[in-house]
Amino acid sequence: MKITIITGGLREPSSTRLLADRLAAAVAKDVEAAGEPVELTFVELRPLAHPIMDAMLTGFSGEALEAAFEQVAGADGVIAVTPAFNASFSGLFKSFFDVLPEQTLADMPVLIAASGGTERHSLVLEHALRPMFSYLHAIVSPRPVYAATSDFGAGTDSALGSRITDAASDFSRLLRACGPRARHEPADDDLASMRRLLSET
Hints:
The chain has 201 residues and is α/β, with parallel strands linked by helices. It has one domain (2-200): Flavodoxin domain (Rossmann fold, 3-Layer(aba) Sandwich). The protein is built from 7 helices and 7 strands. Strands 1, 2, 3, 4, 5, 6 and 7 form a 7-stranded mixed sheet that branches. Strand 5, helix 5 (124-135) and strand 6 form a beta-alpha-beta unit. Helix 1 (15-33) crosses helix 6 and helix 2 packs across helix 4 (91-99). The longest helix has 22 residues, at 157-178.
């Protein structure tokens, strides 16, 4: 089972990456407990900021960005984690999905998560992330995770840990239900379209 973790943290160290690491570990543990080996790969968006902007301006993606696209396209599931800004996702996070080739996430199981300064931004999950991934035709896991700064403090980490465990359990069941994902190639659509045209003539 190949799982790609997309994390949009803008600082180092990053609470967004910390949340992504914990979610990835929990999902891997749950899937492996069911007898399925897991391969985790990470796509860090911070080093890709300039290639993403270049792709938005020119329509062409460089080698580093193409490699990230390949990692996402080759996954059986995606964990997507963004920092919250003004009750929405970060611009860098959104821009990556704006330049991601169309249909890459079609029928892809996705676990969404976000980190932010306060709990007030937690609605970013349902008001911004879930609609975007639904628009991209992904299969969004029902239980997302939001982590505020206070969730990483002493005495409150157990609550975050419980939310992560519950979300990982839901997502691992979704992954197993969907099974290994057939790789989608845009060229296949072009070939199918050409065959339809030829059959009509």
